[in-house]
Design a protein that fits this description.
349 residues, mainly alpha, two-stranded antiparallel ribbon, 2 strands
């Protein structure tokens, strides 16, 4: 009996020693994993910083050919698009929307910021291809803008064969070609027509984008809205009937997504509008509309203030806690109203 008890005791000591050995192995493995996780978190925070704004005049001067003594009309807008897209690809961490590895795959604020910027670049290159570079509807499209515009519309999440970055760089290269020909006095084929109707056409797209963003931001708290889809036209019809009242609410998981998409869109628009102020100066002065454009820029600049909260708060409209989306919606709505006023001024004879 005594021998059996001693045998059992030896087995228990052996199993305890085995467990201690396993615990030590797990401890040795856990420390490096924890260090790696902390490093990835720090990198993610570093990469989540939004890039600073740049000076459109300096960007145009840097992109101008060395042989050119004077920047031609359209150089500032084209350079602003080039500099914006290069910032998108070369900022901290590079382009993150299509990354599939940590820490990028865990981040969503900057990818949504990137998408907001990208939408504005797509709208601008479309306007350049269809309006700014053409004298009339029957004129031929510019050979470089034919390449740039569709390349910027490439899937923003493709990471391989081809990667998104490679397609966007092809678009940037095409814009460099357009800018070089724009600066060449011996090549009149490349043109940029700074006319009131062209500027008004692009601002019409800006108006729609800002209106959509404002509505999505306001829906952070949920609203019951009257259906105004057919308002203003007694004979208007739509494909299917809808309710007279519509409940609109952004899912709580998407609130910060909409917020940062709006930040990116506003960041891009600030540069495009400042470039338009230079390229379309004669038109704006003629319409006495320069101050209206500057007011739009001022409202958009207010959206770029530092967010001190570690998360995007979603308090009720008049509650105890802030609602960052409603604050952003206020600035965007005021900018949109100013865009509407500017378009009205440009339409006047």
């Amino acid at each position: 009996m005594k021998d059996k008890l001693l045998d059992i005791a030896d087995r228990l000591r052996g199993s305890g020693a085995g467990r201690s050995s396993d615990d030590r192995k797990l401890a040795r493995l856990g420390v490096p994993l924890l260090v790696v996780l902390l490093v990835l978190i720090v990198i993610g925070i570093y990469w989540s910083a939004e890039p600073d704004r740049f000076d459109v005049r300096e960007a145009a001067a840097q992109h101008a050919p060395e042989t050119s003594s004077k920047l031609t009309t359209g150089s500032y807008t084209t350079s602003a698009v080039i500099a914006t897209m290069e910032t998108l690809l070369n900022k901290r961490g590079g382009y993150l929307s299509n990354d599939i590895m940590p820490p990028s795959v865990w981040l969503d604020n900057i990818p949504n910021w990137e998408f907001g910027v990208l939408v504005q670049m797509r709208d601008m290159t479309r306007a350049m291809r269809n309006d700014y570079s053409r004298s009339q509807s029957q004129s031929v499209e510019d050979e470089d803008l034919i390449v740039a515009e569709p390349n910027f519309h490439f899937d923003n999440n493709s990471w391989f064969l081809p990667a998104t970055e490679s397609e966007y760089r092809k678009g940037i290269d095409a814009l460099y070609g357009y800018l070089e020909r724009l600066q060449d006095p011996e090549n009149p084929e490349a043109q940029f027509y700074a006319r009131a109707d062209n500027l008004r056409e692009w601002l019409g797209q800006v108006e729609k984008r800002l209106g959509s963003l404002s509505q999505r931001l306001s829906a952070s708290v949920g609203q019951v809205r009257l259906n105004t889809d057919l308002a203003g036209d007694a004979e208007a019809v739509q494909s299917t009937e809808t309710s007279s009242q519509v409940v609109v609410k952004t899912p709580w998981t998407e609130i910060d997504d909409v917020f940062y998409e709006t930040r990116g869109a506003a960041w891009a628009l600030i540069h495009l509008l400042k470039a338009a102020e230079i390229d379309f100066k004669a038109v704006l002065d003629d319409k006495n509309a320069l101050v209206s454009l500057r007011q739009i820029v001022r409202e958009l600049e207010a959206t770029q203030e530092t967010v001190w909260s570690p998360i995007i708060l979603n308090g009720s409209g008049f509650g105890l806690f802030a609602n960052h989306s409603l604050v952003m919606a206020s600035y965007i709505s005021r900018a949109n109203a100013a865009v509407i006023d500017l378009r009205a001024l440009l339409a006047q004879g």
